Amino acid sequence: MIHSDYHIALKCTNCNGTLTTTENSNILFCPYCGSNELILESDAVKIQKIKSETIKEIALEQQQHEANLEKVRMEEARIAAFKKGIFSKVLILCAILCIMLGIGGFNNCRFKLEYLPGSIISLVQGILFILSWVTGSGFIKLPNRNYYGFVILIAFVLFIPFVLLIP
Fold it and tell me: Which among 164, 88, 167, 159 is positioned nearest to 122, based on CA atoms?
């Protein structure tokens, strides 16, 4: 709720100073002589206060709603740019390549078991590339958008043991 301090200015009956009060107070206070006076409000004044508070609350809720809509629009624009971008296509290509290498390595495992670790690493890389593409495309929502970048980093780092394990 938004509170704006406004002051009601009336004259003090004791010293003729200016009496002040705040929005939610029913007491007038004289800063010069220290006297207090009770404000009696009519029903119309109370209704007007309720209306103004309701208007303030509605305006605040509308601002929050508009801010949320802007966040959604920005996220949709980011996802659309990701899907159309070259990086998305590179991820898909890397995923397909890694999965094909993994499957080919498993086929070669019939002849030599030394292809098994490289095949497993290649399939894991393919899965990580797919996971990062799915996350970047917005199909999976993560609390932090940087997670899919971390997954991509792991997938690329796995190229090192894959290359080292090739016989």
Answer: 159
Closest CA to 21 of 13, 35, 46, 43: 35
How many C-alpha atoms does 122 have within 13 Å on its Cβ side? 21
Cα–Cα–Cα angle for 42, 46, 50, rounded to 5 degrees: 165
Cα atoms found within 13 Å of the Cα of residue 94, Cβ hemisphere only = 22
Helix (H, G, I), strand (E, B) or coil at 145: coil
In this prediction the pTM is 0.57
End-to-end CA distance of the chain: 69
In angstroms, rounded to a whole number, what is the distance separating the alpha carbons of residues 36 and 34? 7
* Cβ neighbours of residue 73 closer than 8 Å, sequence gap 6 or more: none
CB 9 within 8 A of CB 20: yes
How far is it, in rounded angstroms, from Cα 29 to Cα 37?
A: 7
Tokens 């190229």: give the residue.
159
Distance CA 109, CA 107 (A): 5
Determine the pLDDT at residue 41: 64
pLDDT in tens, 22-45: 666 777 778 888 887 776 666 666
